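Standup notes, protein team

Yesterday: finished cleaning the Nitrosospira briensis set.
Today: tRNA(Ile)-lysidine synthase structure.
Blockers: none.

Input for tRNA(Ile)-lysidine synthase:
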Amino acid sequence: MREQIKAGAHLTAGLSGGVDSVVLLDLLDQLSAQMQFSLSAIHVNHGISGNADKWSEFCLDLCRSRSIPLTIVTLKISREPGDSLEALARDERYRVFGELKTDYVVLAQHLDDQAETLLLQLLRGAGVKGLGAMPVVRNLAIEVKTQLVTSRSLPRILRPMLEVSRREIEDYAREHALKWITDESNDNLSFDRNLLRHEFFPLLEKRFPSYRTTFLRASRHMAEASTLLDELAEADGNACLVQGKLHVEDLRKLSFPRAKNLLRYTLVQQGAILPSTTRLEEILRQLLSSRQDAKLNISFGNAEVRCFQGVVHVRHIDEQRALGSRSREWELAWHGEKRLVIDELGGTLEFIPRKGAGISLRKLSENPVTIRPRQGGERLRPDQKRPRRSVKNLLREASLPPWERETLPLIFSGNQLVCVPGMGVDCAFQAVAEEPGLMVEWQANK
């Protein structure tokens, strides 16, 4: 931990009120002065237990007694038939962590948690990534499964007690006369983790007393294998990826396992919730068997895979629905901003000054400048040697995917179409040599 934390860092302890997190808070409280980091705590009230509010009060009193700032977040978890309550609670918890303004979210997961997680993942048929040990430090973006990774800075997850057993934690708590709460659900054997903890592991320990460290070693071997698979995917991606997009023709040159590994890696990099192995293999088979002109569209989890002209596109379903639900009847005024965020289209316009190129500032300033979505029927003449043409045909000839054609902003001066980003500037508004001009770039949210 001392290798990770720099002086002046802000650490936020995940505090449930149980013995593990209480011991963690006690240790961090002692270390904060020595290592010169600021300390706060976060308590997530899932509202599942009837005692949940009492646990929040306990955490509040504990932090007050130590003058540690505490944030309490109360959740309402909606559960569909067949959903795992544990998984939903976990996803919501990490979503909350992702909203914190802190450098590290510090969690009290320990050696026994490692063993339980390994066995649960094994029983679920997880691959090497799922069987890999929890790392001491991890990017929070990897844990957040409810949304695509954004460019904003997220705190990192820190787990400093991964090599400490539950027994050692409880001994420390008793030795230092710490108080904690007990979650009654920990004894509920209907939860898989509790069944392993109370029934299976005590039996295993009688025959294999060092199973915890043995499991940890096995998990680390799996984590190494997972890293190697990622490195292989990166190497394969150099041959199959163009501007971050997979090309089906290049994907066909790989063996099926390597192609599957690359597709899985690409989906993770795009922030998609991975489908099951069977579903992933079916997606790959459809991609590999698709024709160049095929318009493949496969949805899963929070994303969809589309194929256009042999190029694979990964799109976020929630963002698409949000854009689709917004009205097409809107208009934004431009007053010389260098950057203009357009929430209606899910992207940002960049205006870059450039002498003798782009839009003529002189001509642009003759009438009010507005940004509007495509309505249909717009025409543009970016080439003096060719007649004015419909924007629809220009976009089609540019081989732009159909869904991207609908989310391009159009720039008008008065009622005259001036520019379609990526397509060109109308001849009547093009800057001449040495004249102040503006280059316009459209960046869609990823």
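Follow-up from PR in the comments: The chain has a mean pLDDT of 87.
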